[in-house]
Amino acid sequence: MEFNLNNLMLDDNAIEILPDGDYHFTVESHEVGYASSDKLPPNTQQITVHLSVPFEKDGEIRFAKIRSRFNVWQKALFALRNFAQCIGMMPERGRAAFDISKLDGSTGVCAVDSQESSKGNVFNNVVTWYAPSKAPVVTANDEAWKKRDQVMLTEVTDDLPDVFGV
Question: What is the predicted pLDDT for the residue at 47?
Answer without folding.
Answer: 93
